[in-house]
Amino acid sequence: MPDAIADAKRALRAELRERRQMLSQSALDAAGAGVRAQLDHLVDRLGVRSMSCFLSTTTEPGTREFVEAAVGRGIRVLLPITRADGLLDWSVATPGGDIAEGLFGLPEPVGELLGPIAVNDVDLLVIPAAAVDRSGMRLGWGRGYFDKTIGSMEGCPPVYAVIFDSELVDEVPREIHDQPVTGVVTPTRTIDLAPAGR
User: Which residue intervals of 22-144 are DSSP H helices?
Assistant: First the structure.
């Protein structure tokens, strides 16, 4: 059975990756502007002073404009840095901060490394996803970094996954280690799906 679930996840990820690669630059630009507006509203609604976010790749709904603006507003934003042991280090975002290619070719900040527990003090986690279903289950990209992070946090704050509108689906394949999210942020809306602090 686990093999069937793993196969279903791989197939869905491949389909979603292909769909993202077909998007035009204007569609991606519009998505980034929409996500920034949605995230701005979310941090205001939750009264966020400290949060984590990720630096979007070229095919993800853009988060970089939001990160720059949040730092400019005085919000402390922690950005993830992948480690070979499956955990995430964190670095504080700075205005115009340098970006390098991380372990898996993903954009990561260049700066002082804070250990995995640095994220325990944030008010909000904003994480990437391939898809999320209506119960709040998230399909990641298969490396498990964010599932480990969320699963290890005591008193986990709200967790929102950033996806395109079409990636909120009825159901995603799930395994025992998969962690739900509180909600999703898309270019057009923010939807609460499951209670925070699971």
Answer: 25-46, 64-72
9 is in an annotated binding site: yes
Q: How far apart are CA 94 and CA 77, in angstroms?
A: 8
Residue 177: its pLDDT value, please?
84
Does 19 show up as a binding residue in the annotation?
no
Say which CATH number the domain at 16 has: 3.40.50.10420
DSSP state of 175: -
Phi-psi region of 62 (alpha: psi -120 to 50; beta: other; left: phi over 0): beta
Q: Which residues of the chain carry a pLDDT beneath 70?
A: 1-2, 195-198
User: Cβ neighbours of residue 8 under 8 Å, at least 6 residues apart?
Assistant: 173
| Residue 11 located in a structural domain | yes
Question: From CA 151, how far away is CA 167, in angstroms rounded?
Answer: 23
29 part of a folded domain? yes
148 is annotated as contributing to ligand binding = no
Q: State yes or no: 10 annotated in a binding site.
A: yes
Asked whether the beta carbons of 173 and 139 are under 8 A apart, the reply is yes
Tally the domains of the chain.
1
Q: What pLDDT score does 183 carry?
A: 97
